[in-house]
Write a structure and sequence with these properties.
Layout: H1 18-22, H2 25-32, H3 36-63, H4 68-85, E1 93-94, H5 100-131, H6 135-138, H7 143-160, H8 162-166, H9 178-187, H10 194-213, H11 219-233, H12 241-245, H13 262-294, H14 300-316, E2 323-324, H15 326-334, H16 341-356, H17 366-380, H18 383-392, H19 394-409, H20 412-434, E3 436-439, E4 474-480, H21 485-500, E5 504-511, H22 517-532, E6 536-540, H23 544-552, E7 561-563, H24 566-578
Parallel strand pairs: 4-5, 5-6, 6-7
Antiparallel strand pairs: 1-2, 3-4
Length: 588
């Protein structure tokens, strides 16, 4: 009989190189082969996304307290760079509703120049995060934090649109915080403009209706164009982009740096960090959503570098901060995009609008854009996920509600940090409960009555002892779960009580995948105490990593011995008990 040839072991997977991690997806797509069919698909998708991004970019800019052209500049320059350099095939970059609160607060504190400087600095921070390969860790943000954070932002966006939805005239500047804003809006209710309410409601009705009955149609653009035509033809007394901002410049501005000095840089650094933190979360979350829709995989660190470059580029051209936009990315995928070329075309279509048709934007009513953002805010809330988390467990509900309330009433960065900390504590608590110490079940079940005992005699045995006469004082216990600092004290106290009642203790570590220094130090203390009490400790089934951690912290002979299996550990324990005790030392 011929012996089959041995199959060589598969080589260990090499760690990815720098080029593997940071090659843009555009390069990957072009290497695969790019023809007319792919170009046609990307052109259609890019045009579709541009139609969605056009009114949305202007609406986000206005809600952020700046002129609408700055939203378009961010979508054009930032969107182009995200698709050119990004690590996701389908990511669409541009201004996002999640940034409205941060941008508006930065403008109020430091002005537009301060906003551009913060955006520029945040781009550098994002690039550094990507080059340091920190993008991998963004995915560890707990799900209740993202759901609560997104819902909180949606509430803030909706609150920021009440003024334009109702056409109110305020006696002074609109406050940023929701608690301060609501009383001012309440006292301004007598100035409500019925025409603005009608335009806003009509815009929302058209968007909702088209989404339901004609989902393939560009509902946002149709609703905004229809509102502009109605307002112009009927001469309605409604504020428009032209009456409020004087229109949109026809063309891109020349690139330039915002005013730089150390005092200003120090003042906007907290805002830049907040932009970078939120931008990294939003963009990588959008990339994960795109992966789930397409089955592809993005390069997170490459995406962060692209987002950083996009923010620097947007700031140089006077635009808002840029991030991956989930809604526009999903629209891009549904429109049949093949790769990043669709994002490039989306940016070029927006540029063509600014160069050719910018004067037409003057007729767009602010109430219509407020209606667009109201729909966006409603769609941002993951309603089913929110209710599910409230019902799932007290811990998840607490993390969700704390993040949501801090987002709405305190600060976005504080909400993320506190929510993440609570989520980490909840995880530690759950992991500590998952660690167990239980009596080991022998591999061969023992008969209910021993052979050398009469029927009816008690059959109780200590765990794993085949017979007390043969196995006196030897007990075997099995540990399972991650043995770490959260469970070290609890497990240590249990093991201490077990060791005090026996002459030899066998601990099976085959169910312990990982151990940290706190747990190893606890076990070292147990072994020292057991040695003083002349209790022999044998550890079985330790993985190389666990054994290395134990030995580093002093758990080695003579404190404890190691065995590959439980049976061999029991043999070692027997041998240790049968060996004569060491001779007592005489007087010095």
């Amino acid at each position: 009989m011929r012996t089959p040839p041995s199959v060589p072991a598969a080589p260990a997977a090499a760690s990815p190189s720098f080029l593997d991690l940071f090659t843009p997806k555009l390069v990957t797509v072009l290497r695969e082969g790019y023809g007319l069919a792919q170009m046609r698909a990307d052109a259609l998708a890019g045009l579709t996304v541009a139609v969605v991004a056009l009114p949305l970019s202007m609406a986000i800019a206005i809600a952020s307290g700046v002129s609408p052209d700055r939203g378009l500049y961010a979508a054009i320059v930032g969107g182009f760079l995200v698709s050119l350099l990004g690590g996701s095939r389908f990511q669409i970059g541009g201004p996002a509703g999640a940034f409205i609160v941060l941008v508006a607060g930065t403008v109020q504190q430091h002005g537009v120049d301060g906003l551009l400087l913060a955006t520029l600095l945040s781009g550098g921070i994002l690039m550094a995060m990507g080059l340091l390969r920190l993008g991998t860790y963004i995915q560890f943000i707990p799900y209740p934090v993202t759901v609560g954070f997104t819902a909180g932002i949606a509430v803030i966006i909706a609150g920021s649109q009440i003024k334009d939805l109702l056409g109110l005239t305020l006696g002074g500047p609109e406050p940023g915080p929701l608690f301060d804003k609501l009383p001012v809006l309440w006292h301004s209710l007598p100035t409500v403009t019925p025409a603005a309410v009608a335009v806003a409601l009509g815009t929302m009705a058209v968007i909702t209706g088209l989404k339901r009955w004609r989902p393939a149609w560009p509902s946002l653009l149709i609703a905004v164009v229809g509102a502009a035509l109605l307002t112009t033809l009927a001469n309605l007394p409604v504020a428009t982009i032209g009456s409020h901002f004087g229109g949109i410049p026809q063309g891109l501005p020349l690139p330039g740096l915002p005013p730089l000095d150390w005092a200003r840089i120090e003042a906007v650094v907290p805002n830049a960090i907040a932009f970078a933190l939120l931008g990294s979360i939003e963009s990588l979350l959008s990339a994960v959503v795109a992966d789930g829709m397409t089955g592809r995989r993005h390069r997170s660190n490459c995406e962060l570098v692209a987002q950083g470059t996009a923010n620097i580029g947007a700031a140089l051209f006077g635009g808002l901060c840029v991030t991956g936009a989930i809604a526009r990315t999903a629209t891009n995928i549904r429109a049949g995009a093949h790769g990043p070329v669709a994002g490039l075309i989306h940016a070029l279509v927006l540029l063509a609008f600014v160069l050719i048709a910018a004067p037409l934007a003057s007729f767009i009513p602010l109430a219509a854009l407020a209606g667009v953002l109201a729909i966006v805010a409603w769609n941002m809330v993951e309603k089913e996920a929110f209710l599910t988390l409230l019902r799932s467990s007290r811990g998840d509900a607490a993390v969700l509600l704390v993040t949501f309330l801090l987002t709405v009433f305190r600060d976005l960065t504080e909400a993320i940090v506190v929510g993440f900390a609570l989520g980490a504590l909840l995880f530690i608590h759950r992991m500590s409960q998952a660690v167990s110490v239980e009596a080991h079940t022998p591999p061969h079940p023992m008969p209910p009555v021993a052979e050398d005992r009469p029927d009816g005699a008690p059959a109780e045995r200590t765990p794993y002892q085949r017979d007390p006469a043969v196995d006196p004082g030897v007990v075997v216990y099995r540990l399972s779960g991650a043995f770490f600092f959260g469970a070290a004290s609890t497990v240590g106290s249990v093991l201490d009580r077990i060791a005090a009642a026996h002459k030899a203790l066998v601990l099976d570590f085959s169910g312990v995948p990982v151990m940290d220094s706190s747990a190893a130090n606890t076990l070292c203390g147990l072994a020292r105490k057991a040695r003083r009490a002349q209790v022999h400790v044998v550890l079985s089934g330790t993985s190389p990593g666990v054994r290395g951690t134990l030995e580093t912290h002093g758990v080695r002979p003579p404190l404890a011995t190691f065995a590959p299996t439980v049976d061999e550990a029991v043999v070692q324990a027997h041998a240790a008990l049968a060996a004569p005790p060491p001779p007592a030392k005489g007087p010095a």
